[in-house]
Amino acid sequence: MKDAPGLPNGRHASDFEWIDYLRKSPDAWMFVSGDGRILKNAAERAALRSAGLHGFVLAPAYQKTPLHQVAATIVWKWPEIEAVTKLIAPPSMHEIPIGKNVRLRSLPL
What we know:
Elements: H1 15-24, E1 30-33, H2 42-51, E2 54-58, H3 67-87, E3 92-96, E4 105-107
Parallel strand pairs: 1-2, 2-3
Antiparallel strand pairs: 3-4
């Protein structure tokens, strides 16, 4: 969200700010986050539900994974990520596992 025009504070926007920004956008959005804490805050979960987004959270094992390997795994998983966004109505939340041969895991939202 670094260069999103109209997003207060750019890359330093709070979770509520970027969620609201995406909710108000006329475009269809989905997000990938490395911060699984977004699912632990009831207010943020409610904001995500009301925004009607597809969300993908990286599994905790990514925290110790070199960035180039994280990027490679996301690219490897991209067809599966796209398939989920086409098959399931938003809002939805899934975890992207660290293994390339492990399927996305549905998370409660």
